[in-house]
From TrEMBL:
Domain of life: Bacteria
Annotated source species: Chromatocurvus halotolerans
Coiled coil residues, start to end: none
Official protein name in the record: VOC domain-containing protein
All copies of domain VOC, residue ranges: 4-131
Length: 146
């Protein structure tokens, strides 16, 4: 598949809270908007938050990954190693709680990565991570994951 800009649309129950989280906390540039949705530049990809009623918010299942229950429905960014620490500082300075705190996954293995999960005000899960060896992002050989 050719490279392109990824587009993701998410349900939120409060556009003002989403604007604070994605715009102020994460620092995403705001794009077009209406009374029912807002576009954001999320790592050079298009993220759109759509206002829905609270009853329409999805329930998220989990899946075990490296001895953790990871939300099966999530999105995020793979950051450069040093940028991960800057993001953690930004989250901490904005008093954002972690759904899964910062830690190293697959420690000492070929796919070693640092990761953390947060939730936006509507409950959508975001994962931010970085790889010790960025070339492992799409590796398929020599992995020992159960």
């Amino acid at each position: 598949m050719q490279s392109g800009i990824f587009h993701l649309a998410l349900p939120v129950d409060d556009l003002d809270a989403a604007a604070i989280f994605y715009g102020d906390v994460l620092g995403c540039r705001r794009g077009r908007s209406s009374s029912r949705w807002i576009d954001y530049d999320f790592g050079s990809h298009q993220l759109v938050v759509h206002k829905v009623e609270t009853r329409d918010m999805p329930v998220v299942a989990t899946n075990p990954v490296d001895d953790e229950q990871v939300p099966a429905s999530h999105f995020g960014l793979v950051l450069p190693w040093d940028d991960f620490d800057a993001l953690l500082s930004r989250l901490q300075s904005n008093s954002i709680d972690y759904a899964i705190g910062p830690h190293t996954r697959f420690a000492g293995r070929r796919g070693e990565q640092r990761t953390c999960f947060v939730r936006d005000p509507a409950g959508n899960y975001l994962e931010f991570k970085c790889f010790r060896n960025p070339e492992m992002l799409f590796a398929t050989d020599g992995l020992d994951y159960p």
